[in-house]
Each structure stands twice: as structure tokens, then as C-alpha cells.
Amino acid sequence: MFSLRLALQSVIKEKWMSLLSMLSIGVMLFILVSVAVIVYNVEKLTARLPERLTVMVILKDGVTSEENKAVLAAIKAEPTVKVVTFVSKEKALDELRRSLKKDDFILKGFADNPLFDSFDVKIKSEGVRVDDVKRLIQKIKSMKAVDDVEYGEALMDSVYALKSGLRALGLSIGIVFVCSVTFICYTTVKILFYRHKEEIEVYKLLGATRWFVRAPFFIEGSIIGILGGVMGSGMLMGFYYYFLRKLVADIPMFTFMSIPVQFMYLLPAVGMLLGLGGSVLALGRLKY
Amino acid sequence: MIELENVSKTYGGHAALSNVSLKVERGDMAFITGPSGAGKTTLFKLLYLAEKPDEGTITIAGCNAADLKSSSIPLVRRNIGVVFQDFKLLNNKTVYDNIALTLRIRGFMEREIKERVHSVLKMVNLRHKVDNYPLTLSGGEQQRITIARSIVGEPTVMLADEPTGNLDEENEKEIMRIFKQINTKGTTILIATHNRALYKNTARKVFFLEGGILKGEEE
Questions:
Q1: CB count, 10 Å around CB of A70?
Q2: Distances from the Cα of A279 to the Cα of A23, A171, A284, A286, B75, angstroms
Q3: pLDDT in tens, A236-283
Q4: From CA A264, how far away is CA A59, in angstroms rounded?
Q5: Which residues of chain B have pLDDT under 50?
Q6: Full-prediction pTM beyond 0.80?
Q7: Mean pLDDT lowest among A60-64, A100-104, A235-239, B94-98
Q8: How many C-beta neighbours within 10 Å does residue A119 have?
Q9: pLDDT confidence of residue A175
């Protein structure tokens, strides 16, 4: 209790320095969590990408009905597959003709049906990753009766690259900002320690243990971290209410965007841990 | 009891103490005197465990200083009351909080702290200054507060380095009266001073230090 009182007294006494540290930590944690929000939303958006893709399996010309059935059974047995529909080349031609409407005269140039028998494969909506789809495509392509497999490969690859890039960027920014917040706490606590050096000398003469001397600084670092985290949460709430909510309402493209409420609670806890870590580092190697 | 056996301490080739041996019996009040630079402050630093001797053994408050782990030093210091010429009071804390600090460090409950602080303030005749800050007090009063702070934890040994160095004769007498009173309760006291008048009528034992060497002792 005495250590807590000392820590609170010091935060109040050094209010401008504490406030500046808290504000810096708040801004850094806000940027950190903003990156996390972007990564989270891209992950959320791309997680359902496979279900939006239709994989078209083109069969070789002259495939027998047994071979056809074997391919169907093999695809149906795949755990990532939701529905498989056989599309005969006649049906495919009808559909093409319907979609061309008045321009269907183009097809009159062909003596025979130029299309192929195929399967339309729908992917399950839950728990299927882009990698799973890629593996499925490779498996189908290796089947003897299959000529080719078409799907949104370019789109999937770009989304995949974007996701990987964002993850790497998020991780790098995360590491840099975690180190920065820890460094701010480290510096603040070190300055406070040197400002209290004479007081600490007296504590030592009176028989204070290392823990007794250190505890107020650990608590102080944690308080600065927590309050910095609270400021970061406040900025995040402000960002949500004054920017994101309006963006989502005005531009339908961004309707998928959201901020997990856990992030708001998490920031003060992260701030506290980093504050405590900074204090431990600041006092760790000091001899007194 | 305080005992030094063949203690030496050197700083950068300069011998601050050379082969010093002395003994202050339990419950005794002794003085150590000598000119400036004689090694009194070094001796005190060794006694309150701020430094370790290069050679020799030191026994204080029942412990051999050479055998102490650094984690045990704070616990031994709780048995040693220290008084300095420059008081070393915390100027941003009241008289009450300055004295109470000794007990808070030891984890005493607030009720007992209150009782003990008022009791020692009564002993040094400064009960009415309980809510004052140190800088509003005279030098003599500040030194009495320092003494109160050092005895509130009931140490077995008390060390005072030039306790009356900055005080007038009146305050000097008052401080010595308090030391005698503390000594009659069984606390071993060692006072460093170069003021001859201070130990002339008080001391049972005086050690003379010069150039880091113990030149003699008087009973």
C-alpha cells in the first residue's frame, strides 16, 4: 500500500512528464492497434474468399461415363467441397447462347459444339483456407480424365500476397511500436529514479530492501502504461465513432469493416505489461 | 557491540584506514575523534555497511560484515541507527512521515507507527512540530528529528557522524542529553567528532584516529 501511495504521489507530482509519456504511449498503442484492425479486417474479408470462387473442372474430350462418375466421386469426397454439379457441353452451349443473347450468331461459325463437359465445384464457406483450395486444384488437375481446372487464380494469388504482406508489415510495425512503448516507460522510470536518488539513499540507510525501493517504480511504470493504454482506447473509440462508422454508412464497400471490442480492453492491459517491462529494464542493471 | 579487527581500506592507492582495531562494548557510549581526513567517515561507511573493508573483520549489531550477503545488508541496517551532520531528512515529507518511514520500511501497521512516532517525538521534545516540514525547523530541531528517526526502530547500535557539527552550544547540549538518554536504555553509541568539548565530560571511551591509523584510546 505504501509503495502504491508513493507511486501515485510521484505520478501526480511529476504530472507533466507522466502526461507526456502517457500521451506518447497512447498514440503509439493507437497506431499499433490500428494496424491490428486493418490486418484483422483483411483476414476477415479474405477468410470467406474461397466460398465465392467457383472452380470449373474441364474434362477431356471423349471421357467415358465411368470416368466421369469416378471424377465426380473423387471431387465429392474432398472435405473442402460443398456442391459439385455436372455441366454437359450441350448445357454449357445453351447457357452461353443465353448469355450472348442477340450476339449468338457468333456461335453459328462453329460446325460442332466447341465447349467441353465440365464440373462446377462450390467450396464450403467455413474453415477453408486459400491454401486448401490450391491443394484441391492440384489434386483435381492430376486426375486422368481432367483436362484443365479454371478458377480465380490471379485474384486468389493477389489476395494471398496482400495478406502475407500485410501480416509481415503488421508484425514489423508491432515489434517497432512495442519496443518504442517499452523504451518510453524505460526512460520515464529511469528519469524518475534519478530524480529520487537522494530519497532512495535515505531509504537504504533506514534498511529498505531492493524490492521496497523498486516497487514504487514498477507500480509507476505500470500506471503510466495503463493510462497510456486507456488514452489509446479513447483514440480508437474516437476513430470508430467519428470516422469508421461514417465511412461504413456512406461507402458500402467498407461495410465489412469493424473493430473488435476486445481491442479496447486489451490496450490498457498491453500498456500495463509494457510499462512494467520498461520499469524492470530501467531498474534491472542499476546498482543501489 | 562494535568490533573492528585489523581493518584496512584503500581508495586509489591512498590508505584511508590502516590496520584499525577497536571495540565498543554493548551498551557503551564511545567517541572517535581526529582531524579532518583522519578516516572517521570511512570508518562509519564501513560500519553502516555502505562499503566493505579491503582487509580485516567488522562485527556490528551481532553480525560479521564480511559474511553478509548484499540481500542481508538492509536487515542488519535496521539494527543500526545512523545520524549525519547534514541530517538527510526528506524535505518534501512532514516530520511525522520522515520518522514513520523507518517503520513503514519494516512493514509496521499504521496504528503502531503513530504510537511510536509520538513517543520518540516526545523524547526529543518536538511533539508540537509533528506536521512541520524539515525546512521550517532550525538546525538543532532537524538534528533532533534525525535522531528520532534513527531510534524509532529501536536499534541496538547507533552511529552519529559529527551530529553537532553545524549546531550552536545550546543545541549541542540538547543533542548530547538525548544521546545519553538513549544510551541509558542500552543502545550502544559511537559518535564521530572533532569537537573536544563534546566528549570531554561525557565519554567513557575515546578513540584517536589520524591519517587512517588508530593513534590511541582513552578510557
A1: 15
A2: 17, 24, 8, 11, 25
A3: 888 888 887 777 777 766 666 777 888 888 889 999 999 999 989 988
A4: 53
A5: none
A6: no
A7: A100-104
A8: 22
A9: 92
pLDDT at A50: 65
Consecutive H or E run containing B5: strand B2-11
Q: What is the dihedral of CA B132, B134, B140, B146, to 10 degrees?
A: 110
Q: Which residues of B touch A195 (CB under 8 A)?
A: none
CA A216 to chain centroid, in Å, comes to: 37
Q: Does A202 touch chain B (CB under 8 A)?
A: yes
CA–CA separation, A138 vs A131, rounded Å? 11
**Residue-wise burial string across B171-206, b where 16 or more C-beta atoms lie within 10 A, e elsewhere:** bbebbbebbeebbeeebbbbbbbebeebbeeebebb
- State whether B78 and A201 contact (CB < 8 Å): no
Q: How many CB pairs under 8 A join A and B?
A: 41
Total residues belonging to chain B:
219
**pLDDT at site A127:** 67
Contact criterion met (CB < 8 Å) for A209 and B71: yes
Top pLDDT among A235 and A3 is at: A235
At A282, is the secondary structure helix, strand, or coil? helix
The residue in chain B having the minimum alpha-carbon distance to the alpha carbon of residue A196 is B90
Interface test with B, best of A4, A13, A14, A202 (most B CBs within 10 A): A202
Q: Which of A2, A199, A210 sits opposite B104 (nearest CB)?
A: A2
DSSP character at residue A60: P
Chain B neighbors of A14, CB-CB under 8 A = none
Q: How far is A25 from chain B (nearest CA, A)?
A: 29
Q: How far A236 CA sits from the closest chain B CA (Å)?
A: 39
Does the beta-carbon distance from A209 to B74 stay under 8 Å? yes
Query: Taking CA B182 as the corner, what is the angle to CA B178 and CA B186, rounded to the nearest 5 degrees?
Result: 160
Q: Provide CB contacts within 8 A for A266, sequence distance 6+.
A: A33
Query: Which of A205, A210, A211, A286 best tests the B interface by mutation, with the highest count of B CBs <10 A?
Result: A205
A197: nearest CA partner in chain B: B90
